[in-house]
C-alpha cells in the first residue's frame, strides 16, 4: 500500500472559518509493520479506517475553501483521536478482531509510532490554528468521521450523526435543519457522544481554546464511493451554511 504524505494538508491558507480534521482518513500501514499480521480482508474493514471520511473531508475543503488535515496512517497503527495513555491508542483488538502486530509491543515501538504519526498530525492542526489566531482569523473545528452501519449486532439507523459535549451552539441548529428532511435520520450524541476523557482531537484543539466545533459521523454505506461522498458533503454543507451565515459561499 502506497504511503501518503504525513499528514495530508489541504488548503492550509483557506479562507473559510472551518478547519477540517479527519483523524481516521487512511488505512495505510507502513511496510515494516507487515500489515500488523492481518489479511487484506480485515484491512479494508471499518476497523482500519473511517471508510468514506477522507472523501467527504476533501469535498468539504473544496466547497468551503477550508484548511483540512487528514491522517495518513491506519487507526490500527495508532489512533489519532485517543489520548497518549489510552489503552486503545494502539489497539490490540477491534470489533472482535485480534491485531497480532499490536500485541506486547515494546515501549520503544510505541514511542516510534507516536513520534512518526501521532505528533505530526496534531502538529499540523496546531500550526494552522495558531497561524490563523495570530492573524486574527476566527476558526471553527470541523471533525469528520464515519461509522459502520452495524457494530457488534447493534444497527445504526442514522445516516448522519453528531457528537457534542457542552457547547450546543452549532450542533443544535444544524440538527434541526437536517431533521426537516423526511428521508434521513439524524443522530444526536448517537451512537457516540463527545467524551473529553476518551476523544482527543476536538478536546485538545477546540475545547481547550474555547473554539466552536462540530464532530460529525457519516454512515459508511452512505459514503462508499466518490459520488456518494460528494453528495453528502454538499448536503451537509448546505445545511451548515444555512445555520452559519459566515460560512464560505457554496459552489453553484
Detailed description of the structure:
With 252 residues, this protein is α/β, with parallel strands linked by helices. It is 30% helix and 17% strand. It has six helices and eleven strands. The strands form three sheets. Strands 1-3-2-6-11-9-10 form a seven-stranded mixed β-sheet, with helices on both faces. A two-stranded antiparallel ribbon has the order 4-5. Strands 7-8 form a two-stranded antiparallel ribbon. Helix 4 (171-178) links the parallel strand 9 and strand 10. Residues 248-252 have low confidence and may be disordered.
How would you sum up this structure in a few lines?
The chain has 252 residues and is α/β, with parallel strands linked by helices. It has helices spanning 40-43, 53-64, 107-134, 171-178, 201-205, 226-243; strands spanning 8-10, 18-22, 68-70, 93-94, 97-98, 140-147, 150-151, 154-155, 160-163, 186-188, 212-219.
Amino acid at each position: 500500500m502506497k504511503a501518503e504524505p504525513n499528514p495530508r494538508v489541504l488548503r492550509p491558507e483557506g479562507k473559510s472559518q472551518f478547519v477540517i480534521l479527519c483523524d481516521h482518513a487512511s488505512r495505510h500501514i507502513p511496510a515494516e509493520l507487515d500489515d500488523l499480521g492481518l489479511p487484506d480482508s480485515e484491512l479494508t474493514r471499518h476497523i482500519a479506517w473511517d471508510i468514506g471520511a477522507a472523501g467527504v473531508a476533501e469535498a468539504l475543503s473544496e466547497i468551503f475553501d477550508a484548511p483540512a488535515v487528514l491522517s495518513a496512517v491506519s487507526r490500527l497503527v495508532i489512533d489519532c483521536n485517543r489520548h497518549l495513555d489510552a489503552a486503545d491508542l494502539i489497539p490490540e483488538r477491534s470489533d472482535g478482531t485480534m491485531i497480532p502486530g499490536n500485541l506486547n509491543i515494546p515501549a520503544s515501538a510505541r514511542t516510534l509510532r507516536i513520534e512518526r504519526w501521532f505528533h505530526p498530525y496534531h502538529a499540523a492542526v496546531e500550526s494552522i490554528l495558531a497561524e490563523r489566531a495570530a492573524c486574527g482569523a476566527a476558526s471553527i473545528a470541523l471533525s469528520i468521521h464515519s461509522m459502520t452501519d452495524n457494530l457488534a449486532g447493534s444497527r445504526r439507523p442514522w445516516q448522519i450523526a453528531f457528537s457534542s459535549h457542552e457547547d450546543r451552539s452549532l450542533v443544535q441548529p444544524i440538527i434541526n435543519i437536517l431533521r426537516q428532511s423526511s428521508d434521513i435520520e439524524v443522530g444526536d450524541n448517537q451512537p457516540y457522544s463527545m467524551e473529553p476523557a476518551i476523544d482527543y482531537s476536538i478536546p485538545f484543539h477546540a475545547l481547550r481554546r474555547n473554539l466552536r466545533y462540530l464532530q460529525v459521523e457519516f454512515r459508511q454505506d452512505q459514503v462508499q464511493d466518490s459520488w456518494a461522498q460528494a453528495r453528502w458533503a454538499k448536503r451537509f454543507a448546505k445545511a451548515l451554511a444555512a445555520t452559519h451565515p459566515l460560512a464560505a459561499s457554496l459552489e453553484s
